[in-house]
Predict the structure of 2-dehydropantoate 2-reductase.
Amino acid sequence: MSTPWHVLGAGSLGTLWAARLARAGVPVRLILRDTARLQAYQAAGGLTLVEHGDARLYPVPGETPDSSEPIHRLLVACKAYDAEQAVAQLLPRLVPGAELILLQNGLGSQDAVAAQAPQARCIFASSTEGAFRDGAWRVVFAGHGYTWLGDAAHPVAPIWLDDLQAAGIPHEWSTDILTRLWRKLALNCAINPLTVLHDCRNGGLQQHHCEVATLCLELGELLQHCGQPAAAEDLQPEVERVIQATASNYSSMYQDVASQRRTEISYLLGHACKVAARHQLNLPHLNQLQQRLIARLHSLGLPSD
Ligand code: NAD
Ligand code: KPL
């Protein structure tokens, strides 16, 4: 039997991956927070994946973090702000050379996880797939996309990419995963906070062209300074293209705020501002954007970290 996948974080992306792996006959275990969650999950009989309006149940086995089974391969599908703590409780179960696949958006959480698990190989991922939960243990596959995976320290692709192939998870091994993550971070910084501040869909930013352009200039400067010139290339035209292509959508940050959920600000705009400060780079508009966003989150009673 092939090496089992453990999936930490039974949310939208975690269950989307777990259901597709299980469907392909790949062994998968879902790690739930505690016994109460495990019992609720077991009562539901498994995960339901809704695809093209068709709902199917996959009885993926569940367990709690304190189970004794060693972990060889762990998909970390928590939000960026939960990843470090969630992985910490599993450290005693990781075998030497275990592989961690980190699905978090933004930057900062991956390094924090890698620092506490030096015995593991950490693979960073960046995904354009879209999923949301429409009920307990039910996930809707909302947007087909792609997942790039890479390991900045070891460029050799792992053998288990075959499992993703078998599961129909569109993916590509990337030798420049940090560039991809920085590029996505820059796009998110140029779009997401402004949609919250202007209370608009992505397309609404067409009315704020100058503000977007100024942010792109500063983000480009930051990317150049932190050794990511490729991520800075033609940033502004791409941001404008994404704004147009996703004009009727609400950004992920907008949706988090509208649903009174904590945002991943610290791993997006917060990370950009922190790295700029470390490089003693003065980026006034980016800093001001961060202050405005923090003030807005506070006014809504939401955390700003
Ligand atoms: P989510 O909130 O739906 O799921 C996260 C899950 O992790 C939750 O079920 C939560 O209970 C669980 N969790 C947190 N701490 C835990 C712990 N200590 N032990 C066990 N479980 C724990 O989040 P998501 O939407 O799946 O997003 C995950 C990451 O993927 C984020 O960084 C997000 O930005 C990124 N992403 C999401 C999508 C999407 O469409 N949902 C698309 C691209 C990228
Ligand atoms: O990824 C996005 C998000 O909403 O998080 C886009 C659509 C690119 C906007 O930044």
